[in-house]
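Handout, section B. The chain below has 101 residues.
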Amino acid sequence: MLIYNVTNQVAHTIHEDWLNWMKTEHIPEVLATGMFTHHRLVKLLETDETDGLTYAIQYFCNTIEQYEQYINNYAPALRQKAQERWGAQFIAFRTLMEVIN
């Protein structure tokens, strides 16, 4: 199993709206691609919150092919939507991880 992890630092001014948008629009759109089996949304603790709050969204998929299909066919449009809505008020850092145990 693979985990596609997206860590976001979100400005205080949009925090509540962004979180609501993630829960009600963005995460459901990502899952609707059919590439991921489920997700987990977490808030990072013990981080410097001067510039904003930090969240990680973890999307789980079974194969590298599903991940690659998401990255190639769906991610660009979904990232663009987020950028158009929130602009520079959030920063996203993406990683791919493999579940070992």
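Note. The first strand starts at residue 2 and ends at 10. Compare this with the example in section A.
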